[in-house]
């Protein structure tokens, strides 16, 4: 079921545990399928967090999975010049996070540090384990949050490594929709 009409502006507002500000950016609602809600982030999207901001020179689509999954996925497309997206350096980037919640057109979630990425050469890896361990102590993650993030990372890693949906071509339809809205 479509949450909004395609083309509706949305905002993604991430925090760290305890309400600490984190990444914030705007996008466009693209539609929904069995996997979840799909969001578009055109080239020029400004990503900002305290002390850091950049404008993307690449196009991305995001997936907010159904069923209260504990992650958010972003699929990246190389720039028109064929360069790989700047600081992301990944074809697919999945943040382990609390299940996302919509508040009207604002999507909110808490980033839990662990990430699963598929590099441009096809390598799949879990990254930022050191940050995850540091923040468990510094921010006081409850045991159930630690377990949720670790189990979610393993499930995403396994699915991505096995080439299962949505990590094997599901995003192409949504890139085409984003392109048609430009």
TrEMBL record:
<feature type="domain" description="DUF402">
    <location>
        <begin position="20"/>
        <end position="162"/>
    </location>
</feature>
<protein>
    <submittedName>
        <fullName>DUF402 domain-containing protein</fullName>
    </submittedName>
</protein>
<dbReference type="InterPro" id="IPR050212">
    <property type="entry name" value="Ntdp-like"/>
</dbReference>
<dbReference type="Pfam" id="PF04167">
    <property type="entry name" value="DUF402"/>
</dbReference>
<dbReference type="InterPro" id="IPR007295">
    <property type="entry name" value="DUF402"/>
</dbReference>
<dbReference type="InterPro" id="IPR035930">
    <property type="entry name" value="FomD-like_sf"/>
</dbReference>
<keyword id="KW-0378">Hydrolase</keyword>
């Amino acid at each position: 079921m479509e949450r909004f009409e395609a083309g509706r502006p949305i905002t993604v507002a991430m925090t760290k545990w305890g309400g600490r500000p984190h990444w914030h950016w705007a996008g466009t609602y693209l539609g929904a399928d069995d996997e979840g809600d799909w969001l578009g982030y055109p080239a020029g999207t400004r990503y900002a967090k305290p002390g850091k901001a950049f404008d993307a020179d690449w196009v991305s689509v995001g997936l907010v999975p159904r069923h209260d999954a504990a992650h958010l996925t972003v699929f990246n497309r190389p720039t028109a010049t064929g360069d790989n997206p700047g600081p992301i350096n990944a074809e697919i980037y999945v943040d382990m996070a609390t299940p996302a919640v919509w508040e009207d057109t604002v999507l909110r979630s808490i980033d839990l540090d662990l990430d699963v990425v598929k590099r441009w050469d096809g390598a799949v890896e879990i990254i930022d384990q050191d940050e995850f361990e540091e923040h468990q102590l510094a921010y006081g993650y409850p045991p159930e949050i630690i377990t949720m993030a670790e189990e979610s990372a393993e499930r995403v890693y396994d699915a991505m490594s096995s080439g299962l949906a949505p990590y094997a071509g599901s995003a192409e339809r949504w890139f085409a929709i984003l392109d048609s809205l430009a």
